[in-house]
């Protein structure tokens, strides 16, 4: 059997399940991710971060760190080229919380459909960025019978297929959901992908939802355009200068949240577990722990539903975006420095939220349950 080396691991204090997954490797120390410095890492072999730590030569050049993991999907906070040049191992957690982001989008859209009295079946949903998040959103929407328009130039360049241009999505989509990474270089940079030139082209009465990265939309331009377009409905989970938030833009949103779309316990612990597996691989050790061994059981387990068409009730039971919206709005009028701290606090103290699949729906009667299956719930009964 390969011996486990004694390593010093420094991790963001907001990473869950660190002890069961990483204590076996040696000394485990946590600190606040946003204010992490080279001094915190002076004896670290391994660094585990979330999206709020900028990982670059500035942080790491005088440290012994040999492996960096980010328990997130996004990697725009990590200078991967520099890590590669230095021979420092790196892993992110692709797809770890993709289902949670999809559930944020579905819950938000169901709420808006209920309030504004429209049917999602009558709407075309444009998905910009059709990767792990956008692709799973596509699957669930299509299984629910909802029309989708897909925009993903990098995939289109490789695969061809049924993709459309951003212009087409802006013109035709009733609902536009952004799920691209934040990139500033390359053939298809996403920084300010939506800006003063193209935002005015959003369809009349469109819903614009961003649960990707804040700077993918020019927030100042969005504020200006949305002030002259009262027909637009905005759902923003991410902000251009977070943790600072433009209060006027947040006020203009139907749903505004502090970057929590992916914040299910399942998504977060899956991210930590993926880093555990990556570190084992880096050290050429067998990964002995399965995700199920560190994921606690869900407290809300079963719901009996008699009307399988009611999608909002189970969705709200698992995740109500207005709970987070209300908590967020209470922080907006604090002095600027306190507002930024409150943004991080809301995220650090985020209440337990689970994925739809942890809720078993027992469907009474013989109603067809396909919309609930399509949403991602664990369904039984009703001819399911
Ligand atoms: N709000 C939140 O809590 C969360 C936000 N995210 C963000 O969502 C992003 C997407 O996540 P995944 O789908 O898992 O990433 P992914 O890498 O699986 O997919 C991204 C897709 O965007 C496409 N893309 C790249 N440039 C594009 C462009 N200019 N126009 C259209 N499409 C473009 C890529 O080809 C790819 O298919 C992450 O990079 C992260 O920044 C991820 C998780 C949680
Ligand atoms: O996975 C990603 O990418 C995300 O956006 C995470 O949900 C962000 O969470 P933090 O790393 O900022 O806690």
TrEMBL record:
InterPro entries (alphabetical): D-isomer_DH_CS (IPR029753), D-isomer_DH_CS1 (IPR029752), D-isomer_DH_NAD-bd (IPR006140), Erythronate-4-P_DHase (IPR020921), Erythronate-4-P_DHase_dimer (IPR024531), NAD(P)-bd_dom_sf (IPR036291), PdxB_dimer_sf (IPR038251)
* Sequence ranges assigned to domain Erythronate-4-phosphate dehydrogenase dimerisation in this UniProt record: 302-374
Which pathway does the record list?
Cofactor biosynthesis; pyridoxine 5'-phosphate biosynthesis; pyridoxine 5'-phosphate from D-erythrose 4-phosphate: step 2/5
Residues at which NAD(+) binds: 152, 180, 237, 262
Please write the reaction equations for the catalytic activity of this protein: 4-phospho-D-erythronate + NAD(+) = (R)-3-hydroxy-2-oxo-4-phosphooxybutanoate + NADH + H(+)
Record's keyword annotation contains Iron: no
What's the superkingdom here?
A: Bacteria
Instruction: Please verify whether the record's keywords include GTP-binding.
Output: no
Which Pfam families has this protein been placed in? 2-Hacid_dh_C, DUF3410
Please report the stretch or stretches of sequence annotated as the D-isomer specific 2-hydroxyacid dehydrogenase NAD-binding domain: 119-261
Identify the residues that bind substrate. 51, 72, 263
Q: Where in the cell is it found?
A: Cytoplasm
Q: Where is the active site?
A: 213, 242, 259 (proton donor)
The Swiss-Prot or TrEMBL record describes its family as follows:
Belongs to the D-isomer specific 2-hydroxyacid dehydrogenase family. PdxB subfamily.
Binding partners and assembly: Homodimer.
Supply the name of the protein: Erythronate-4-phosphate dehydrogenase
């Amino acid at each position: 059997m390969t011996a486990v080396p004694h390593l010093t691991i420094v991790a963001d204090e907001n990473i869950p399940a660190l002890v069961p997954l990483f204590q076996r490797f040696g000394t485990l120390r946590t600190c606040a991710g946003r204010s992490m410095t080279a001094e915190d890492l002076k004896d670290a072999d391994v660094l585990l971060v979330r999206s709020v730590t900028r990982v670059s030569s500035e942080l790491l050049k005088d440290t012994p760190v040999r492996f960096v993991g980010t328990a997130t999907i996004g990697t725009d906070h990590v200078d991967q080229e520099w890590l590669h040049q230095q021979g420092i191992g790196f892993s992110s957690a692709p797809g770890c919380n993709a289902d949670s982001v999809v559930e944020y989008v579905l819950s938000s859209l169901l709420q808006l459909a209920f309030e504004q009295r429209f049917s999602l079946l009558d709407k075309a949903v444009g998905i910009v960025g059709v990767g792990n998040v956008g692709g799973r959103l596509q699957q669930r929407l299509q299984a629910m019978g909802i029309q989708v328009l897909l925009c993903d130039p990098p995939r289109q360049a490789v695969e061809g297929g049924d993709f459309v241009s951003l212009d087409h999505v802006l013109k035709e989509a009733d609902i536009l959901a952004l799920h691209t990474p934040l990139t500033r270089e390359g053939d298809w940079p996403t920084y300010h992908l939506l800006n003063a030139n193209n935002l005015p082209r959003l369809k009349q009465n469109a819903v614009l939802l961003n649960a990707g990265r804040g700077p993918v939309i020019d927030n100042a331009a969005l504020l200006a355009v949305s002030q002259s377009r009262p027909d637009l409905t905005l759902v923003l989970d991410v902000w251009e200068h977070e943790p600072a938030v433009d209060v006027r833009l947040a006020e203009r949103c139907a749903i505004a949240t502090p970057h929590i779309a992916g914040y299910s316990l399942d998504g977060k612990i899956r991210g930590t577990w993926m880093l555990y597996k990556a570190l084992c691989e880096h050290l050429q050790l067998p990964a002995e722990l399965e995700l199920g061994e560190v994921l606690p059981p869900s407290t809300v387990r079963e719901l009996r539903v008699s009307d399988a068409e009611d999608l909002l009730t189970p969705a709200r039971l698992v995740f109500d975006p207005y709970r987070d919206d209300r908590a967020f709005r209470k922080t907006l009028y604090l002095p600027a420095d306190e507002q930024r701290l409150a943004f991080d606090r809301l995220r650090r103290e985020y209440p337990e939220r689970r994925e739809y699949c942890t809720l078993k729906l027992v469907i009474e009667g013989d109603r067809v349950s396909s919309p609930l299956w399509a949403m991602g719930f664990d369904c039984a009964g009703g001819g399911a």
